[in-house]
Each structure stands twice: as structure tokens, then as C-alpha cells.
Amino acid sequence: MKCFTVLPLLLPLLVTALSSVTIKGNAFFADNKRFYIRGVDYQPGGESQASTKDPIADINGCKRDIEYFKKLGINTIRVYGVDNSANHDECMKALSDAGIYLAVDVGNPKYSLNRENPYTIMRSYNDVYLQHIFATVDAFAKYDNTLLFFSGNEVISKTETWAAPYIKAVTRDLKQYIAAKNYRAIPVGYAATDVDSRYELANYLNCGSDDIRSDFLAFNDYSFCGKGVFKGSQWEPKVANLSKYSIPLFLSEYGCKEVSPRTFSEVPVLYSPDMTPVYSGGLIYEYSVEEAGFGLVKLSGNSVSEIPDFNVLKQTFQNTPLPSSDGGYHSSGQASACPPASANWKVNGSLPIVPQGALKYFQQGAGMPLGGRDSVNVNGSQWVGTPTTGWATAGGSGASSSNRTSKETPKKNATVSSMAPTLGLVTAFLVALAWGL
């Protein structure tokens, strides 16, 4: 009798977890079936507010929006900034129950690399920054539906290829922290701008030993604005040039906005045999209408209003089932060759060493997550560090998240802290000289 009276009380507490996603060759897999990302970017309030507004900690907003995610039939959302000191259990369970994974950027506008010049990026790679992003890993590693971590977003917006070692170093640091904490192997990679150095960067992040290579690479790419035809599109040469790439590729942002409402004609192409051997889907930019004018819904308090783009995308997804096959993925592959210097690629070949003050985190953990409650570094991490002078010899590695920009889309530029001290001309000249600029 006791068994029958206790069991009904326990049933509501049971959680059916989503299968953790792993990597095989250049593809994601869940339950031995290839996993294609089909999702939206999700940061109500806009990415510039990502340091203060955490949609995964907003229980009411999260549950409200999940109903619209289910209407769209998506399996992934990307969030650009979270409060690592907040509780995310309820929203993450609600997402899991809806079959939705989370791709999370570990940094935010306050805790990020400052790409203004070689000096600022050196100074912003510091122990305070690493403590923050490691604490973000701690906050989300426990959830089975944490799909992946973005170590950075558009740190290289145009020609700042000298930032590449920092992009690779932060990816390295995150991977080593995850291993040191004995977490499951949650993939770590970078979201890149679609610029002229895209192929050099792709090869750079995938060259060297496994401990410094990215687990995946994503592109913020709005270049497909055709009529749903792959041949002759701007995606065709990208697929050809990356056809032998040995880690997963996907689109961290896409959705041409040349016409309104958007047609989303690129969706069927992305999940077609023309692209699935190389790409594993992507994330539409973006869920809510923000300053840049993208979006699928308008939010006003607790109310949600679908705009025409929402229904167009919903119908397009319904008409484009995810591939049931493995999509012709490559089950194995070699690391890329590190790219030589060129007009597009000016990179110091070594990686910055881990800041001395951050070494303890690998043994002791990141400690208390501070979120927005850091009373000492109230302006974040960009200007608290002393530039590291050491470099580790390796195939390259480096950075963390930068605030976004895109040459294809009129969105926020990378933030340069208003608290930044004026950089002396002599110091700036010497640093630039060291990088060969």
C-alpha cells in the first residue's frame, strides 16, 4: 500500500532529460542520430543588454516564449548573455520538456575581450574575465540540454586578425576548465563574422593539437538572399572551400532582411543535400524585434504579437523537414593546416598563456558566480588586467566573446568600455609594432 500511495507523489518530480549532444567527425549526434540545429537567437531587450537581462532566469518570459518556440518547431535557442549567479533550473527544465537545447555565449558586454586594438585585447584577457566565463560554465554544465558554449562572438569584425590568438586561447581555456572539473564534454567553439579572412580563421581555429582546436565553428552569415537556389548563391563557394573541414559547422545567425516580410528562402537550402555534408543547420536572427529591426515577434510586457515573419518562418520550417539521414557527414578528418601570413591574415603564431591569477580556477573551481553583483569590478573585466607578456607555442588559440557587429547587418558594434583609460601614444605604437601592424 505504501508503494502505491507514495509513487503518485513522486511522478511530477521525474524529469525526462534530453539526450546530450556529442560530436562525431564534422557533425553533431544525439542518440546515434545526426542532430541538425534548427533554432532562433533569443535575447529579449537586445544583445547590448545581455549583461543585465538574462532570459533563462526570467521564468515567466521563458515559459511564455517557449509556446512560440513550439509553434515554430525549433530545437535550439541561442542566448548571448546570462547572469551566472541566477537560478536557471525552471526555465532549463521547461526548455528540455519542449525538446529545446540551449547554445550559450559565456561572456557578455561587461565581461568580454576588448578588440579596439592589440593593447586593449591583451589587457582584457585577464583572470577576472576567466573567472566569469568559467562560472558561467559551472552554472550550465549540469543541464543535459546545454548544447554548446560560444567562447566568443565576432571578435574579428573586419580586419582585426591579430585578435585570433585570443579567440583560440579562450576556447582552449574553456575546454581545459571543463576537463578539469570532470564535466561532460560540452562542445566549445566560436561564432565568426562572415568577412574576407573567414577561411584563414576557420583553418586557424582547427589547427594544432586537439586541446587547443575548436570543437565547432559557426558563422553569422546573411549573404544568402536568393530565391532558394543553392547553385550560384554566395553559400556555394563557402561549402566548396570548407568541404574537407573536420569539425561541425553551422550558422549562428542567418536570415536575409532585404525584403519584408522575410521569405526565409535559405532554409530549404541549408537543410538540403547541397549543404548537409558540411553544415549542421543554423539559428535565425532573431526571436524578438529589437533595435536592428530583425525579429519574429514583438514583445510588450507579458504580451507577444506575431509579425508576418513569424508565420512565414513557421510555414517554411513545416515545409522543410529535417533530414532523416546522416546528411553525408565526414566521420573522420584531420586537423587543418595553420594558415600562412597573407594580406588577410596577420597573426602571431603563438598563444597567450593563461593569466597567473586564473591558474587556481583549474584546481579549485571558479568560485562564487558574481553575475552582475561584482562590487569590486563594477564595470566588468575589460580594464582590470595587466597585459600578459608570455606566449605558449602552439598552433594558435585565443579569445572570448566580443560585443557584436556585422558588415551585413546594421547591428550593435563591439562595445569599447566608456571607462577605458586613454592609451598612451607611445605604448600603442610599441604594441602595434610588436604585432607587425
- Class in CATH? Alpha Beta
Number of strands: 15
Give the helix tally: 12
CATH fold annotation? TIM Barrel
Mass-distribution shape: globular
Overall average residue pLDDT: 86
- Strands of the biggest beta sheet: in what spatial order? 4-5-6-7-8-9-10-11
CATH superfamily descriptor: Glycosidases
Number of domains as seen in the coordinates: 1
C-alpha-based Rg, rounded: 21 Å
Largest sheet entry:
8 strands, parallel, barrel
H/E order of the elements? HEEEEHEHEHHEHEHEHEHEEEHEHEH
SS content category: alpha/beta
Question: What proportion of the residues is helical, as a percent range?
Answer: 25-40%
Strand share of the residues?
15-25%
Low-confidence stretches: 1-16, 393-434
CATH architecture: Alpha-Beta Barrel
- Compute the separation of the termini in Å: 78 Å
What tags apply to this protein structure?
437 residues; alpha/beta; TIM Barrel; eight-stranded parallel β-barrel; three-stranded antiparallel sheet; 12 helices; 27% helix; globular; disordered N terminus
